[in-house]
Fold this protein.
Amino acid sequence: MSIVVDGLHKRFGSTVALDGMTFAVRPGLVTGFVGPNGAGKSTTMRVILGLDAADAGTALVDDTPYRSLRRPLRHLGSLLDAAALQPSRTARNHLLWLAHSQGLDGTRVDEVLALTGLTSVARRRAGGYSLGMRQRLGLAAALLGDPPTVMLDEPFNGMDPDGIIWLRGFLRSLAAEGRAVLVSSHLMGELQDTAHHLVVVGRGRVLADGRVSDLVAEHSSLEQAYLTLTRGAVEFSTREDVR
Ligand SMILES: Nc1ncnc2c1ncn2[C@@H]1O[C@H](COP(=O)(O)OP(=O)(O)OP(=O)(O)O)[C@@H](O)[C@H]1O
């Protein structure tokens, strides 16, 4: 397994962010990671990357805690926050800087720029990029180490319809190459067409972990599956079923 999360617990003061989060991400599949606002998706990803420490439980990447990996970007590429870049650097220089700081070969920079459709704008300052372009740049950074596993937090955000169609195909192609792809999203329509597998979470724990085709067959659509499975796990809602 590429990523194995086992019994994660995490509190922020009196807020329980993770309450026994447990799942695994498999190679060759796009795994959607979905749940209401505050369900614990970003916290889980931060714990996997060692950016937050869990109070209990383990998160392993290729059987190892991420922070103990000697060349982490060769194991797991991640995109957590598309805004996290130095605005005065060009996209190409941003990637070159990242590659060098991580001990990676800079020759891959032009490759990932091409893969993410950024070649023609690679010499523009990243500070002038739209959110959709920043998402592509974050994706390029995630792929720098040619990792077998990719983890993306809401990569569809800010993408225009062309970008969404492109990203759907791109995530599928990464999985077809044998990579494990974990992608969080609130866009069920996108995931129905993109993900093979779905981990549905609420209030810091897994509510369902199964194949998208099974969930769709059982609930008529992924959106319906999501609404049914997360009933009762939403903190703020105008939905009638959670009153
Ligand atoms: N640094 C922090 N300090 C305090 N509380 C936090 C912190 N990070 C997360 N939380 C809380 O932990 C819970 C889980 O948040 P998290 O961001 O992981 O959820 P999420 O599923 O990613 O939500 P969203 O879909 O809105 O991005 C929420 O109640 C959130 O307010």
